[in-house]
């Protein structure tokens, strides 16, 4: 394998620095734009190459000392070598670039990124793997485990649970360690930023609304925070345990459906027909739709269902800017994008949470 000197021009979504050699993009992890580095080419493709960092020859003023002894080997974190302020700047730019490149949105109405109050010790749960006495996370770009005694981005309770697990010599398998004994349904990993996310969504919804459809609702994280703004709330999620948790303390105005979002939004005998809510609205001015899909984003059928439903307010919560950008490209024919707000749910990692707020175009109101 050959070693080359490179000038890092950008940091791509996913966390790797981008350089160019003879016009071809070269991806180098653990680098920062503006740096000059020496890197070994380890994989060469027709369109791009992958390299491993050998030496930083000219470092960025934003380069800092990582706080984790496993950083660079463990696949969890990508940005511990970058100052926190610059991590935020990189993530904000990556969202904007995805919207421009994939979504064809030249002037996306970007708001400032919402930072995490804690840059370390913020995770309220982790999943570790045990294999032949090794307990930890997978190495970067491999299925090899690296033995982890302490995870600096995880909270004290999680690290105590890790120490207890390690002392038990567990059988091979996967173990989810949590900070609390709350119901085992999907919830956000960073409590403080999750609260900021919920507050943001609540602020985006005007008062005195008729119907909320909360798709991919989980245990009702958004729906329950919005109850005083709606006459009726319908939540949909495939996770029956999450739906059971949502139903536990549900009021009369709440309905939670355990089912596939695409099926429920598109079937003629589904909840919309049975409830009759959206059918009776006549004008859709008081229909609000919240979408919080997995990283794959919205399917084509779900995007079509959103256009058919024509909610007055659409709030799209995404954990994957490229799929968000793809979906917004199609939705912008019928909706105005009012704001796009990134949130740093996962400091030190390449993950980004984004909230897009859309409103139905005025000419499309009603029928």
Would you write up a description of this structure?
By secondary structure, the chain is of the alpha/beta class. It is 25% helix and 29% strand. The chain contains nine helices and 17 strands. A hairpin with a 2-residue loop joins strand 3 and strand 4. Helix 1 (84-101) packs parallel to helix 9 (321-331).
Concise account of the structure shown:
Helix content is about 25%, strand content about 30%. The chain has helices at about 85-100, 155-165, 190-205, 240-250, 260-265, 270-275, 275-280, 300-310, 320-330, and strands spanning about 5, 10, 15-20, 25-30, 35-45, 50-60, 125-130, 135-140, 145, 175-180, 210-215, 230-235, 255-260, 285-290, 315-320, 335-345, 355-360.
Relevant terms:
367 residues; alpha/beta; six-stranded mixed sheet; 29% strand; 9 helices; seven-stranded mixed sheet
Secondary-structure blueprint:
Layout: E1 3-7, E2 10-11, E3 17-21, E4 24-28, E5 36-44, E6 48-58, H1 84-101, E7 125-131, E8 134-138, E9 145-147, H2 156-167, E10 173-178, H3 191-204, E11 209-215, E12 230-237, H4 240-248, E13 254-258, H5 261-266, H6 271-275, H7 277-281, E14 287-291, H8 300-309, E15 313-318, H9 321-331, E16 335-343, E17 353-360
Parallel strand pairs: 4-6, 11-12, 11-14, 12-13, 14-15
Antiparallel strand pairs: 1-5, 2-3, 3-4, 5-6, 7-8, 7-10, 8-9, 15-17, 16-17
**How does the helix and strand content classify structurally?**
alpha/beta
Distance between the ends: 64 Å
Number of helices: 9
* Widest β-sheet, arrangement of strands: 13-12-11-14-15-17-16
Shape: globular
Give the proportion of residues in helices: 10-25%
Arithmetic mean of pLDDT: 91
- Strand tally, please? 17
Radius of gyration: 23 Å
**Which band does the percent of strand residues land in?**
25-35%
Largest sheet: 7 strands, mixed
Q: Please mark out the parts with pLDDT under 50 across 5 or more consecutive residues, or reply none.
A: none
- How would you spell out the order of helices and strands? EEEEEEHEEEHEHEEHEHHHEHEHEE
